[in-house]
User: Fold this.
Amino acid sequence: MESTILFIYILLAVLIGFNILRLVTFGKGLSFPESLAVSFGIGIGFISLQMLLYHFLNIKFDILAMIIPWAVLPLLNNLLFQKNKAPFNNLSKPSQPKDTRFKIFNICLWIGIIFEISYAFFRALIKPIESYDAVAIYAIKSKIFFLAKSIPADYFGAFTNMFPHPDYPLNIPLFQSFIYIALNSLNDQLVKVIFPLYFLAVVVMLYYAIRRFAGHTYSLVFTFVLASIPQFNAYAANAYLDLPLAYYSFASAIFLFEWLRERKSFALLALSAVMAGLAGWTKNEGLLYCVVSVLSMLVFFMFNFEKMKWRYVIGMVLYAAIIFLILAPWMYIRTRYHLVNTDVGAISLNPLHILRQSHRLGPIFYEFQKQIFGPKKWNIFWIAVLAAFALNFKKSFTGTLRYITIFLVFTVSGYIFIYLISPIDINFFLQKTWSRFLVQFLPIAVYWLAIILKKDVKE
Amino acid sequence: MKNNIFKIAFLIWAALWAWFIVRDLLVKDNIETYKVLAGRDLEGKRSYITGDRLYEFLKYCKNNMPEGARYKMTGLEDGSIDKRRAVYYLYPSLELNEPGYVLDAQNYILKKNDGA
Assistant:
């Protein structure tokens, strides 16, 4: 019975996300499976934002009070976009015809992908939330919200500092409490279903993103590669938030890259900005992806300065504004209640301090190579990335691909910067985080690898 | 040439992938854990992952303290996973100053704190 209710409410979240997606994309949309994958994350993000808004308005988390307001969306969509039923011209369908060769190979890839997805669901649902951060940081918060049927009035003032990391955003803890409220029980086993669903959604998005420039088999190969990376699959089951963040940062990045390629549709930019904003609402590291996206756009302006158009500038302003709008309520709370990271504390951005910290580069690169050449977590993925980069260095910085390369370079630089400015013992910090940070941009790296190898591989 | 490199790399990938699955299930003995978990209900699973003895003790404390009671816990290292799980399961009771109860998780004793 609980599983049925859970299924209905997950479906409702997808439906809400689907309608927001239609609004954001001006009534257009993506192909159906990709729409579902994107709608899932949007639905979760906006329901949790709604719950934060209810905190400001002093409204209790009643399931009907949370669902009913969204009913206006389908009506609004029908009213506004009745005539506009066509999906994006350039995004709706894979541009490559479906090849019928390699039938057996394709079947093997399908089996591999389905196995990995099923295994992720199995591992997530066989036990309740139990891993360290999942219990100490996220599950405790969702339990507090569920029992209070609200974010308690004194939560940010007094409560939150009793638990680690009061500054961590509340997207997933709030959605978990939404599920508990829907189930009317604190089932911390069933609630874990959202993590393999994020995994499934990333896999679907990656397949469709690659299908826009490559054939079915080629897309399946890279989809299998992502799904079968042990660390990525493990994070689909442990209720940590690195995989949901990977989902949002990937969705944001692919729609941004698509806009940088076609440079026309504001809808793509809007969708990318929404996903970037939700990345920041999922984990603090998500803010890095917001900054990296904006920086990548600035690089685009630099390369296209002579062909600059006003709509590019307007696009960028809108992009930043959407991110700001999504993050503003949480940033307001963080500032008002002085919520700071219990581990990081007061960070110094003094250039002299950063320079003095440069001795940390040794341990940083040592840990990097440990992850790159250690196949237990990553198979040979990072070795393949390094080899592809070395062999295609020039190509990495040409055409639209250069923005993806630059995006990744900015991302890794951002993490290095965090390691440099943090007062935490560097070896401890690296051991605890780097293999998780890699998960956060892994789908973007797989996408980059698929593009860069495309011309080298005959299908 | 590049096509062949791609094929070889993919074969290595697939071989390692198969080995990692076998390792995860058989060498790490996860199958045994899954078997045990599959035979338990939600409470039983919580108990298994927390440790049956500790979980029983936490349940006993929860049932014998008023809801929202203040407690002090000893016998579990601060910041350890066991302590975090204990705090999670015991909520809405909280570990605060002037505790009404003392939980000795090493000897599994719950005491009323008369000095509070």
